[in-house]
Model the fold of this input.
Amino acid sequence: MAEQITPRSEDYSRWYTDVIQKADLADYAPVKGCMVIKPYGFTLWENIKEGLDTRFKATGHVNAYFPLLIPLSFIQKESEHVAGFSPELAVVTHGGGKELEEPLVVRPTSETIIGHMYSNWIQSYRDLPVLINQWANVVRWEMRTRPFLRTTEFLWQEGHTAHATAEEAREETMRMLDVYVDFAVDDAAIPVIPGRKSESDKFAGAVNSYTIEAMMGDYKALQSGTSHFLGQNFARAFDIQFLDENNELQYVWTTSWGVSTRMVGAVVMTHGDDQGLILPPKLAPHQVVIVPIWTDEEQRTRVFEVVEQVRKGLQGQVRIHVDDRDAYSPGWKFNEWEMRGVPLRIEIGPRDVEQGQVVLARRDLEGRARKRMVPLGDGLEEAVQSTLDEIQDNLYQQALAFREEHTYYPDDYEAFQEAVTKGFAYAWWCGDAECEAQIKEDTKATIRCIPLEQEPGTGTCIRCAGEAEERAVFARAY
Done:
């Protein structure tokens, strides 16, 4: 099966689309730029969703749902917002066989419709804070698309909160960025760099935008989640006011933050290899697959007695699947589940039954190190769980080592230009938009973020040699 997948070294882009299709994550839809998320891919997304949703609720947020269709006039109320999204809007002009009195926009994001509703719901400081998240689909008319990474329609969550003070809203913005970091590291096993976006790259209508940036297997960056401090921009546009404790009218302070199905692409490109997917156990649709091995009916009966024993012992502790298909050989099944990224395979054959053992095969290792024999009995469940924990940690450590190996600290512009072709470049930046634009023109690299963690002192801008107070991470990106 691996022969059906283009090697990463030959064509990384083709490798990615091969894996998406061969591993049964998604397929192309009839409408250009759209995709059908297949059950295996959707289960992966559901596990991502569960990991995030649990964290949101633990920080006091509740879920709601807002309409897909938004009056065009709402989008036009916030000037930066309309300018930023106009090229990507899908606009509905007819409905029910008639031309609409006002065109409707298929939501590209929901700040406007939610701002309108908050203006009706919020009257007093007692109504604050409002901490709402929604799971939804959005549409942005993309010219260049790639499954999960950039599609015309995609799934995501978008949090929208309103606060009485700027300080509270800023705290919320950073709190949710921390939630994204925790999820990426702990569940997705992806090391990320949290940081601030430059003024030219911030969200349309935001005061400040923050991001988590990850390195993919081809050394490019992927923006994996964003959190925005919106100030009072949308509050003023939609007249979201409240009476404070002194009975004076004030505008609220708002935030928004989101992670999308792009995270599926991040998992694929961070951990995958030439054999296909490698999924972190916390997100994998099947954490364990049992592959029975037999050649005749007598062996089948004996093997499946043990298979059922193992399945019952693990049921409820891990997401487990028994591949009992008769039409495929064990070797074919091994290859398929490796391609689909299952973290741990349990092989049970007649010899294993005789010897009272099973074979554990890890997806994250190669060669002889990937397999070991484990006795049947009370210790098997513990061995499986500890192995899954080891796989989860190992995937993170491998990804972190890969990023560190391809991170550079160039001292001059020539070295900088070479560095961004090979990975991330940390470099002093003066903060000037012209320098930022010239770097992009010269190298095709952009400022991915200004990391929140900065070394003390100042330096000289990597391009103009002017005084610089912060280092930025530059990279080519998706």
